[in-house]
Amino acid sequence: MSSVSATKVMVVVPTYNELENIQRLVPQLLDLDLGKGASLTVCVVDDNSPDGTGAYADQLAAANARVAVVHRKSKLGLGTAYVAGMRYGLAQGNDAILTMDADFSHHPRYIPSMVAALPEADLVIGSRYVPGGQVLYPLSRRLLSRGANMFARFTLGLKANDCTAGFRLYRRRVLESIPLEQIFSNGYSFLIEMFFEVQRRGWRVAEVPILFEDRRYGQSKISRNEILKAVYTCSRLLARRLTRRQARANTVMSRSK
User: Fold this and answer.
1) Are residues 45 and 72 in contact, defined by beta-carbon separation less than 8 angstroms?
2) The domain that contains 249 carries what CATH number?
3) What is the pLDDT of residues 185-202, one digit of tens each?
4) What's residue 5's pLDDT?
């Protein structure tokens, strides 16, 4: 995939009780102009939402071939929803998979600039923490987000300014290089582990500034439990990183004897 013109992009949108948002989001996604012949489709991954999100997404899919729906039997977590959407997108022959929230904290208007960055990157992040990026939600959540991001960067040596962002555009070859079934984390800590695997494999990363706004409709899915999971994920990946570093050092020492 050497140019934007060769890019078939599938947008993966995990949902649980996001009816009000999905009614607005999917039409805006379908109206995007990515330029240079690039195309966009949408995959809604719904976890059996009680509010009818999945049924409404089925209506959209019946009316437009560019919309697909993956139904899951219950609320199984954000990480596995991403994986389900990624696998579906790869099976459909897409060149790139974009993940985003349904609540407009990740606004569709940034997607064209993310796609435009693909020729020079393998993963493009819609970033809150690069020049031009901004966060508009309460101070407590800003501090929590910043703290989680700094902790992940410090413990794991992650290089991106916004390594906990869920607004990401992956080239196909990046996802094919990662054994998705072996990603242990679920929930929001999945994002940390995925970036850890991307960086470990040496893929090129670019960050596009975005304005991150708080949701207007529905309820946030972030909980105290998700924060604890993120801390555990960083600790677990740090132990793996140190173990591999020690193994490499032992190999070097044994060869030098």
Assistant:
1) yes
2) 3.90.550.10
3) 887 789 999 999 999 999
4) 45
Residue 237 to residue 190: CA distance in whole angstroms: 12
Quote the number of domains for the chain. 1
The conformation of residue 162, written as its DSSP 8-state character, comes to T
How many Å apart are CA 251 and CA 257, to the nearest integer?
Answer: 10
DSSP alpha helix (H) spans, 130-223: 139-156, 172-177, 189-200
Q: Are 230 and 152 in contact (CB under 8 A)?
A: yes
Rounded to whole angstroms, the Cα distance separating 165 from 195 reads 9
Distances from the Cα of 82 to the Cα of 14, 120, 236, angstroms: 7, 24, 21
* Beta pairing partners, 209: 127
Q: What whole-number distance in Å separates Cα of residue 42 and Cα of residue 99? A: 10
Q: DSSP string of 92-149?
A: TT-SEEEE--SSSSS-GGGHHHHHHTGGG-SEEEEESSSTT-EEES-HHHHHHHHHHH
Whole-structure pTM value: 0.86
Q: What is the mean pLDDT of residues 16-45?
A: 95
Its domain, for residue 128, covers 4-256
Confidence check: pLDDT of 249 > 90: no
Is residue 103 a contact partner of residue 218, using CB atoms and an 8 Å limit?
yes
196 in Cβ contact with 156 (< 8 Å):
yes
Buried/exposed 200-235: b ≥16 CB within 10 Å, e otherwise: eeebebbbbbbebeebeebeebeeeebbebbeebbe
